[in-house]
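User: I want to check something. If I give you two sequences, will you return the structure for each one separately, not as a complex?

Assistant: Yes, each is folded on its own. Here is the first sequence with its structure:
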Amino acid sequence: MFPSLFTIRGLPDTVAFFLVASAQTIFAWGLQRRYPGRSKSAITAAWAISMVVLTLGVVLRSTRMARHFPLWMSSWGRGAAIAWAFMSVLMIGCYELSRLIARPRADHDPARREVLRAFRWALLGAPVAAVGYGTFVQRFRLRLREQDIPIPGLPADLNGLRIAQLTDIHLSPFLSVRELERAVAMANETRPHLTLVTGDLITSGADPLDDCLRTLAFLKSDAGVFGCMGNHEVYADTESYTEREAARLGMTFLRQRSKTLRFGTSDLNLAGVDYQRFKKPYLKGAEKLIVPGAFNVLMSHNPDVFPVAAAKGFPLTVAGHTHGGQVKVEILRQDLNVARLFTPYVDGLYQKGASSMFVSRGIGTIGLPARLGAPPEVALLKLCRT
């Protein structure tokens, strides 16, 4: 029953709480100054509700009381706080844009004013509609994505090899076991030669990791199911448990080690590393995982390792982590999303010399429980000799 907010493990929640709470308070104060009158009380009420939900969510997550409450209370608390801030920024931005575009003039006739008023309301409602679509529609539109991977000099017996990839599952109140079962069935229907699970099975230590592993145990492929750890396994302190329990269920998580698989007369050496922390020396010692004469494939949750992996001699890297941006908007042929602020490797196939990397959008969500422009996917990679 004692709070763990100020312990090392609770520190991320504590920092996140004060940052989000401060940002929301400053933002609400600015809105009240900008929009006085009737809007002021509505802004105050929205801020108060958001703060209560945020506080409840963080306290339930960061104290021993968490086990006495339903899981959805803490997760939805965090999601509601993030969604409130996100929606507020979008709505105020659209409102200001509508004021600029539809500014009334003295020479406007009544009919024109009605048209402009309707336009302002439509623009103001656009963020609500967009986020609502991403939350209640596109987030559930799981699809199979097929991607050819051109490999110069690929051994003949590996030409056409099919690799299924599941990543960033984040099994939680925002992704059910039933939805994960759909993803597993979709992967199995491709009849892959090899199946990879590249990290972030859950979001926090309170999420149902055992349910996730039991569901993934139904994955099937000729050479087996292999995985690597993501950053949320680190945050939840579940790396060792995940490795041990997965092995009991017939899956192999490779942690700084490799496994050589035989396909016909050709060897595929599959290597896996734990989550590579941002701006730390990447893939330290990974050159020891390479098997000369084999086709070497690296599993890394973090795609930023790609230049190092290519330099060390891995012709193929398989990654996730970015969710494809999760909420992505294309403007002037440029994809705008938060992930691009942190990495140039957001979604799809990347090549550097003779090496390639594929980054999957994954299945689940983090933070805002919505996907927009980056629908969830199971990936099927096909190796092609060039």
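And separately, the second sequence with its own structure:
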Amino acid sequence: MLKILYFASLREMLGRGAESLDLPDGVRDVGGLLKELTARGGEWEQLATVKNLRCAVNQEMARLDSPLGAGDEVAFFPPVTGG
């Protein structure tokens, strides 16, 4: 089971801040999970269009090729600017 967290504008776009999901068959990394999520259609397709989408696995910054396993926590968030 994965715990998936969505932050900032992603939470607003998707209408949820978190979900639990069984690790889909064939999904081995963050990029595969992202592809699986966007395949849901509707607002989920917008995940693929977020420029510079950031992700973390188990609270550590990750890349799309970062491996996933059952029990991992995955967070997606847009780039943050400040000043």
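Because they were folded independently, the notes below concern the second chain alone. The longest helix spans residues 30-38. Strands lie at 2-6, 18-21, 54-57, 60-62, 73-77.
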